[in-house]
Amino acid sequence: MGPYSWLNLIGLAIQSIFIQNILLFYFLGMCSYLACSAKIKTANGLGMAVIFVTTISGTANWFINHYLTGDGALSWLSFIGVDPDKINLNFLQLIIYISVIAALVQVLEIFIEKFSPPLYRALGMYLPLITVNCAILGASLFATVREYPIIPHVVYVFSTGVGWWIAILLIASIREKLIYSNVVPGLKGMGITFIMTGLISLSFMGFAGISLDKVTEEDTYPLIVTDEESS
User: What parts of the chain have a pLDDT lower than 70?
Assistant: First the structure.
């Protein structure tokens, strides 16, 4: 597959961050988003952690899909006489993806505990829960289904993490201001947070219908060109 231009990669990044934001468009990763968005400092730390885990795990999962669990991924074993068509490890894909994410979160937890104890205490139980943050797993699965080459794949998973980080920073900045606002008692806390999240999501939904991650036959620099198309 290939080629692709920098313009296509920028379009893919914009699509992932703003148009199809993993949190405000697909509503994935809401648990830690709601729990750790009371303060900007905590939200920023968690957002950066999500970007790191999403990018590294997404990149690792691309190699896992292409050389282990994907269709025909075991063709590299043919040199030892193994018939790759008789072995299909696709049923292990979800388990392996989650295991990779869990391993990275453990490393990240040790790193944050050592170098930033205040952030570690602020994140509390929600730091290890990044393992089950469906936004991170969703980014890897979406990229796998769309069959991006390695560079667009990395751009996509990184941009997805950035989109989640922007979303939690937005709601954290609003929640800090809401502390000093006159909110109806029945809506204080999660109630007003859900309402504000819905309003932010509506603003992002204004970009719906714009497609920058797909190209037509008229495009000069397609993001993905299959072997059939190139022939």
Answer: 1-4, 78-85, 213-231
Q: What is the per-residue pLDDT for 122?
A: 79
Pairwise CA distance, residues 69 & 201, whole Å: 35
Which CA distances in Å does 18 have to 22, 138, 158, 219? 9, 16, 13, 22
In 3D, which of 95, 96, 66, 71 has the Cα closest to residue 84? 71
Angle, vertex CA 53, rays to CA 52 and CA 58, nearest 5: 110
Nearest one of 137, 43, 181, 190 to 198, comparing CA atoms: 190
CA distance 133 to 124: 15
**Which tokens is 66 given?**
């292409």
Q: Is 209 exposed, middle or buried (0-12, 13-18, 19+ CB in 10 A)?
A: exposed
Q: How far apart are CA 231 and CA 229, in angstroms?
A: 5
Q: Helices in 6-92 by DSSP H: which ranges?
A: 6-14, 30-35, 40-64
Residues 36, 126: contact at Cβ < 8 Å?
Answer: yes
Instruction: In whole angstroms, give the CA distance from residue 59 to residue 158.
Output: 9
pTM of the model: 0.84
**What is the secondary structure of 135-170 as a DSSP string?**
HHHHHHHHHHHHT--HHHHHHHHHHHHHHHHHHHHH
Is residue 40 within 8 Å of 172, Cβ to Cβ?
yes
User: DSSP state, 15?
Assistant: I
Closest CA to 29 of 47, 2, 11, 42: 47
